[in-house]
C-alpha cells in the first residue's frame, strides 16, 4: 500500500498543499475513495463465482487497514486525503521521500499492525461469545491475511514501502527504484509460474494468484505519484469567521516541533501557540505562522525556529 506526505518546500508542494486546504475547507474528516480498474475486475470475478460477500468483507477490511495508516499519520501532523481500492486491498499513491525515516516506518507499519489487531480481537471475542464464530470467521481471516501479506517486502505492499525507505537510506533513490521494480517483476513471474503449475499439475485454477500478481506488478513499476497524505492546515471560511470561531490556545516549549503543533491543532478552530524557553515566555505564533514556516522549511523545525522566522523581514526568510 503506497503512501506519502508533503513535508514542505518547493513551489509544486506548496500549490498542492493549498489545493488540499481549499478542497477540505480546513476539515480533516473527508476522505475521497477511488477505485482502481482491477478492483472492478476482481469484484466481478467474485460475484460470478458466488463469493461477493467475501469480496465485500475484504474491501471493508482494506479500508480499515488504511485508516490504521491514517491514524498514525494524524499523530504526526498529517491527514489522509484519499485512498484507492485495488484488487488486493487499498492503496495510497506516492512515496515517503519527504519524511524522516522513523515517521515513514511508523506510518507504513501501522496498517498491518491495525489489521492484525482486528484479527486477534475478533478471535479473542470467540472465547466470550462463541456463537459469533460463524459470522465473524471471515472477518478474522480477511484481517489476518491483510496484516501478514502486507508485511511481505514487495511494493505496493506496506512491507515494500518499509523496504523502500531502508534501501533509499542505504543505497539512494535510483538504486531503490531499480530494486523495487526488479522485485516486482520477479514476484509477478514467480506467481505466474505458480498459477500454471497448480493448473497443470494439481488441476487447481486459482485466479486470485493472477490478480495478486497484477497488483504487485502495477504497484512496483508505476511512477511515484502525487501525495495523498497532505499537511493538515487551517482553512477557515469567511462565513465561519462571520459567525465567530473559538480560539484554541496552547502553551508549548521552544523545542516542540512543527509536526507536534499540527498534531495538537483543531483545524475547525483558530489555533495559537504561546512559546516558552527556559527563561520564560518568548512569543506567540498562529497556525498561519506555523504553516508558512513548514512550507518554507520543514515540519521538523521547532516552535522556537518559527518565532525567529516571524521576526525576520520577508526577504530574509528561507
Report on this model:
The chain is an alpha/beta fold. It has two domains: 11-231, no CATH class; 238-316, CBS-domain (Roll), CATH 3.10.580.10. The protein is built from twelve helices and eight strands. Strand 6, helix 10 (258-264) and strand 7 (270-277) form a beta-alpha-beta unit. It is elongated. 37% of the residues are buried.
Total DSSP E strands: 8
Helix percent reads 55-70%
Our measurement of the CA-to-CA distance between the termini, rounded to an integer number of angstroms, reads 34 Å
Label the structural class.
alpha/beta
Order of helices and strands: HEHHEEEHHHHHEHEHEEHH
- Strand content of the residues, in percent? 5-15%
Biggest sheet details: 3 strands, mixed
How many domains comprise the coordinates?
Answer: 2
Shape call = elongated
Give the low-confidence spans: 1-29, 93-97, 225-234
Round the Cα radius of gyration to an integer and report it: 23 Å
In DSSP terms (H or I, runs of 4 or more residues), the helix count works out at 12
- Give the rounded overall mean pLDDT: 77
- Read across the widest sheet, the strand sequence of neighbours is 1-3-4
Write the layout of secondary structure elements.
Blueprint: H1 11-24, E1 32-35, H2 37-48, H3 52-75, E2 78-80, E3 82-86, E4 89-91, H4 101-128, H5 133-149, H6 158-171, H7 173-201, H8 207-221, E5 229-231, H9 238-243, E6 247-253, H10 258-264, E7 270-277, E8 280-286, H11 287-296, H12 303-310
Parallel strand pairs: 1-3, 6-7
Antiparallel strand pairs: 2-5, 3-4, 7-8
Helix pairs in contact: 2-3, 3-4, 3-5, 4-5, 4-6, 6-7, 7-8
